[in-house]
Every structure is written in C-alpha cells, then in structure tokens.
Design a protein that fits this description.
Number of domains: 1
Structural class: mainly beta
Order of helices and strands: EEEEEEEEEEHE
Radius of gyration: 14 Å
Number of helices: 1
C-alpha cells in the first residue's frame, strides 16, 4: 500500500528549503473558461518538472482550491515548455512579463503522462488570450 506523506500527516510543512527558479516558454496560448470542469487535485504537493516537458497552466478563483480538492472554475492560460527544470511546490508563484498569474494550488493528472495540469489560484478569472500571453513569453515559477 502506498502512503502519501502529506495526506496522512507525516509531513506537516514544506520540506524544500531552497529551490532554483523554473523557467519555461509559452508554446500555446489558450482561450477557454469552464465552470463545471471537475479537476481533481492530487494529494502530492510537489512535482518535478523536467527540461523539454510541456505542461498546462490553468487558473481558478475558487476558495478552497488545494491538494485533494475538486476545482470547477477553470480559466485556461497556456501550455509551456520547461526550459530550465526543477521542483514545483504548492504555494509557488507563476509569473509572466512581470505579472503574477497566480500561486500554485495543486496538480491534476487527467492528461498524464502527456502533461500535467498545474492549477493556480489567481485574483482574476482570465484566460491566456485575455491576459495577452503570446508564443515565446517567459514563464517563471518561483518559491
């Protein structure tokens, strides 16, 4: 039987004290909003993002979005290619063009192993197109 250490209370805090910034580049801009999406955020609070992988960024404005929760309000931002990999953790900020897109609230593996949906809590329920994201824009994921 597998045990997820956060959900069973073995780990009470973020064990990653120092991490490097993850850099990525937008490869597809999205323009879609759903209010009944039913994303299931997995219990693990961290993921390794490897150079060359492509992942999806989704923003929600739902209160209570966290690992283990279901998220229905989803505004799709973009797909990005990881240029400089690392470890992403719930609470990290995702920034593009000096603007904070949101803070990581969890991960949905609906499309794995193709890609992981990285779900952010944002102040604005806007799509990538509405935010003016463009192909080649830099994505920074910072502690």
């Amino acid at each position: 039987m597998r045990v997820e250490p956060y959900s069973v209370g073995l780990v009470q805090r973020n064990p990653f004290v120092k991490r490097k910034k993850i850099l990525g580049e937008v490869v597809a801009v999205m323009d879609l909003k759903l209010t009944t999406r039913r994303l299931v955020l997995i219990e693990p609070r961290s993921r390794a993002l490897k150079r060359g992988e492509i992942h999806e960024l989704i923003v929600t404005d739902e209160e209570g979005a966290k690992p283990g929760a279901e998220v229905n309000r989803a505004a799709y931002l973009c797909m990005f290619e990881v240029k400089d990999g690392g470890v992403i953790v719930v609470g990290d900020r995702v920034v593009s063009k000096g603007v904070i897109l949101g803070s990581v609230v969890g991960f949905d593996e609906t499309h794995a192993p193709n890609h992981v949906n990285i779900v952010l809590k944002g102040e604005k329920f806007l799509t990538g197109a509405e935010l003016g994201l463009d192909i080649g824009d830099l994505i920074e994921i910072v502690q």
